[in-house]
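Example record

One chain of 337 residues, shown exactly as stored in the release files.
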Amino acid sequence: MQLRRRKKDESKPDGTMSLMEHLYELRKRIGWAALGLFLGTIVGFVWYTVSIPALHIPNLGDILTGPYCKVPESKRLKIPGHACALLATDVFSPLQIRLKAGFMVGAVLSSPVWLTQLWGFITPALFDKERKFARIFVSCAATLFAAGAVLAYFVISEGLTVLLGFAGSGVVSGLDPAKYFSFLMAMLLIFGVSFELPLLLIMLNIIGMIKGAKLAQARRYSIFAIVVFAALVVPGNDPITMSALAVALILLYELAVQVTKLHDKRKLAGADSEDMAVLTGLSDDQASPTPAAVGRHAATGDTAGEPIGSPLEAPGAVSAPQPVSVHYPRTDFGDAT
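Predicted structure tokens for this chain:
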């Protein structure tokens, strides 16, 4: 057994792995990620009712019910002994909510662990340049998702005020914890995922699928599509939440337009400088290459070394023209009379 384990842990000089070795590596990565998620869930489960006064951090339950508690008291149910509380009508509802909240927080707290395991599994298949771009895009994606979730958290209270206010003064709402947390999680996910729009557009621009000028020309249609998208995906379709998402996405779209246009200008300037470097390297007796040849050598990086054009040959003597005799066939038309 020890000999087999030693052989399995030994890596090949060229870094290649067999299918079974990939499966063993995947199993190990999933195990560490699951362990991190389990420990994070335990922390979230305990934090649900325990606050940290020294750091001025409230418990998780108060944080999650914060948007609901910002709704005016005339619109929500008042329970004696509780300043703000949800109304549970099921025996297992409190436990389910606490488990869901703990799992959600555990996924966030353990994200460095499972992201590290995911990164460690896919990194060997990437080149150095691809790893650099991957780090940048992952960092930007995490930042944009967090920004969208934070915006949703502060907008939810206004949306709830509008939605609960439609019933008038004769109805007081006592929200069920399961439905409220489902609504809260849906809003956080929708805003977080929607904020990845500029990153997607910039990624498509980098790989050459779209141009910044095309995005600028389609600005009006994109704004209309964004408004329709916000109206379709926002739960409840309240005007405040829908407007907040639409305005944020429009600003992010404009940011993506400017970034893509700047990237296109830099890319064009770099291509022009490479072409000029190719042309200035020619001698006086060399022909200028065709644009296709310039682009081919610039793409391969072979701008120095062998000349692209071929030297012009000296003109030779022109031979004298030869006389050309033309014979027309004789046609007998007979007696015209």
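Notes: Residues 239-280 form the longest helix (42 residues).
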